[in-house]
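## retry 2 of 3
previous attempt timed out at serialization; input unchanged, resubmitting
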Amino acid sequence: MMAKKKFIVVCTVLFSLATVSAFVEELDDTFKHTRKPDEIWLIGFYAPWCTYCKQLDPVWYEIGAELKNIGSPVNVGKVDADIHTSFAKEFRVTDYPAIKLLKDDLKYTYRGPRTKDGILEFADRVSGPLVRSLPSQQVFQNVMSRHDVLFVYFGGPSDLKEKYISVAKEMIVHTYFFSAARNILPKTVTLEEYPAVAVFKDGTYFLYDEQQGGDLTSWINRERFLNYLQIDSYTLYAMGDTDKLVVLAVVEEKTPTKESIRYKTMVKRVASEYKDFYSKEFHFGHMEGNEYINGLIMEEVSMPFIIVLNLSNDGYFLPPNKVETKDQLLKFIDGVLKGRIKSRGGNGFYYRFIRMAFNTKTTVTIIFTKAPLLGIFLVFVFGFVGSTFCYVLYKTCHMVRSGMKDEEPITGEREEPKQLKGSGRDKKTKMKKSAEKKLD
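## retry succeeded, writing output
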């Protein structure tokens, strides 16, 4: 009876895997010849040796099944980039797993967290219209409740609308774009001029002003984040293009202490209460865990901790004293803003080299802690390879020196060979004089 139940469970699992995998197609170099022009494809590029690719694999099959079940026009495929190198090169794949969406002749790259929800939202956003219409106040309210950040164009045809559509084509990978007529505006929204572009976030809205906000692309890029949010490495990477600094509370990841909660609350309070003062220059948020920050500043950070990041050049600002209160945090932020606190780090050659050495040391320490036998094996292998290289280099240099000793000197004047007494030129001279006497 027990054996029969196990057999049924195994069969069910195998059937489920076969059903789910049927919605993901393994692609090869023939794809560009067989793909139809109107097809939309979500493609995952992987390498068999990549650990992160293996972790994403079951999620990828779930994504394929869900998109098929909801009737999405998006086809899901995967490519072994180690085998189909020309395919990967065409899509400019540089790391794994890489996720691309192909729509018409455009290729969009997903740079968010490798989660099912994040990838599904990306596929839905990019595969749909560039600018989605809001036909009624009810739809408007529904959309506002589902999105933390919302960009909306108000008005009819105009040059601003053309710019808006152009920006949407470029930045649809990051956020949604909507348009609406004047008569569906919520009562809380007041627009003095049309056409207009507004962003709705943090319980309020901001209008685009070309004189203050610069070009539309830059303004949308800066405003597409909440004023305060939970930040991970993917979010920091995306924030690097906004030209804003990031005020970050680094806190415990799994079991946050009262101190960590207090730090998060303090940063969030400053972000909210001083939004009008700092929103143009700063993002605010918290990061769970100190691994990323340790690698950036090349030392172990004790949590909770406050730091300001300059993502454009991998620089950072540290408070001169421990930040315990809101006033101390405000003093620190003002010091950064007014140049009283100097930036550290950067992305120069020296800091990149030191950062690489620190990350290598951290990786080796983790390996020895969690898998000491593997660590000893790796040290032996790298030690053997290094000593072999040094030995070959030594022998090569020795051979070069030996060869140089046998050659004539190439510096200074050419040395004349030493003459033996009564030989060489002297002997020739004596023979010449003797011959002359005989002639006389």
